[in-house]
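Lab notebook, design round three. We kept the backbone fixed and only want residue identities now. Task for the bench partner: fill in a sequence for the structure below.
Input structure tokens:
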């Protein structure tokens, strides 16, 4: 039964032929998969940003890409606030550093702090002001109709928002930008600061911009394929 959903008055989607994909022969497929891997392998989490401005249009396309992620029941349970306003960035830095100070002073616990040692992170977050863009990612714990206030359920929220963030980072990286996934802990202050509704919870800040000319990153490696995957072929 197309057109009407038996359980509710919500019309279900009509079906259309699959829009044309960029298909190719096996050899091209391997080449493209390898080249995409090599491209993504150059992505690093960066903490030293240049203040050079980045056109908003780049961020807009990256957010459209994020919004193309698959989601539970196609509820698209995400919202992004992209900030280049220096006053708001300063407010975020100040609130984040307050939380981070407590975190690094012991709130995190010994094991967590030991696990972070090799990354060289601390409570100082200058990049929250230096970088041209901060993208605050919100998950929508339930859908809230802005007009009627009516609530409805969302599904696989963490998975859906995680997928959207992955695509967002891949898009920004492909545009030649450095990114940082930053998770001030806790980050409840972001909802009030950015005037978001009560059904939303901030899950991370994605910092984006050019890297500083002298940016440094920890000398860390990625697990080999055999450590992260098994084939039963
Ligand atoms: N939120 C802190 C701590 C932190 C936690 C993890 I897990 C990291 O991979 C990196 C940092 C901070 O941003 O410094």
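Proposed sequence:
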């Amino acid at each position: 039964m197309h057109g009407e959903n038996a359980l509710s008055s919500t019309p279900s989607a009509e079906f259309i032929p699959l829009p044309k994909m960029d298909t190719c022969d096996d050899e091209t497929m391997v080449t493209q998969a390898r080249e995409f891997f090599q491209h993504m392998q150059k992505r690093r989490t960066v903490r030293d940003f240049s203040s050079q401005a980045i056109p908003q249009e780049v961020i807009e396309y990256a957010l459209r890409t994020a919004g193309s992620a698959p989601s539970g029941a196609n509820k698209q349970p995400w919202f992004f606030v992209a900030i280049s306003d220096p006053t708001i960035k300063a407010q975020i830095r100040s609130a984040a550093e307050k939380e981070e100070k407590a975190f690094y002073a012991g709130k995190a616990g010994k094991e967590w702090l030991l696990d972070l040692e090799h990354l060289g992170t601390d409570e100082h977050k200058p990049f929250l002001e230096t970088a041209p863009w901060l993208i605050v990612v919100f998950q929508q714990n339930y859908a809230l109709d802005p007009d009627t206030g009516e609530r409805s359920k969302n599904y696989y929220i963490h998975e859906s928002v995680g997928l959207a963030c992955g695509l967002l980072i891949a898009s920004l990286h492909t545009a030649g930008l450095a990114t940082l996934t930053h998770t001030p802990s806790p980050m409840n202050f972001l909802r009030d600061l950015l005037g978001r509704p009560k059904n939303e919870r901030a899950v991370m800040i994605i910092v984006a911009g050019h890297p500083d000319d002298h940016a440094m990153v920890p000398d860390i490696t990625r697990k080999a394929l055999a450590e992260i995957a098994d084939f039963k072929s």
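Keep this in mind before ordering anything: The CA atoms of residues 61 and 118 lie 34 Å apart.
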